[in-house]
Amino acid sequence: MHEWALAEGVIQTANRIAEEQGLEKVVEVTIKIGELQQVEHEILEFALEQLRTPTMKNAKFTLKSVPGKLKCRVCDEEWRFSPNEIEEDASEAIHFVPEVAHVYISCPKCESPDFQVLEGRGVILASIRGVKKDD
Q1: Contacts of the segment 46-50: beta carbons below 8 A, 24+ positions apart
Q2: What is the DSSP string of 71-124?
């Protein structure tokens, strides 16, 4: 379950930023999650709750999905893509080895499997709101 590793990374990064910014407590953490990452939001939320630190005792964790957007390298067509658009076996294979996506996905215009991911990949700590120690 990579959600726990992702949660650990988010918590560690948020703590580091809070410390650097002189925050006494963190009020909200916003996390953007690419749909192509195929993260189980419920598991990630649970992991964040379990791993929260005293600085984040009452923090709200907000998860925002970022849809997948691909661009064909042959004809420059751009399109939205969701892992739900392909069979479950293919989706699972891509989940574990993202490079195999080119075997299962092709451009809707020219059918080339040569594309790049523009959006919808990764987990990004988008923002942290908190209260400074001086306040």
Answers
A1: 47/3, 47/4, 47/6, 47/7, 47/8, 48/7, 48/10, 48/11, 50/7
A2: EETTT--EEEE-GGGS-HHHHHHHHH-GGGHHHH---TTT--S-EEEEES-SEE
**Angle between the 2-20 and 41-51 helix axes, to the nearest 10 degrees?**
50
Domains plus CATH for the chain? 2-67+120-130 (3.30.2320.50), 68-119 (no CATH)
Residue type for position 109: K
pTM score of the predicted model: 0.82
Of the ranges 4-8, 37-41, 80-84, 89-93, the best mean pLDDT one: 4-8
Both tokens of 90, joined, read: 């293919």
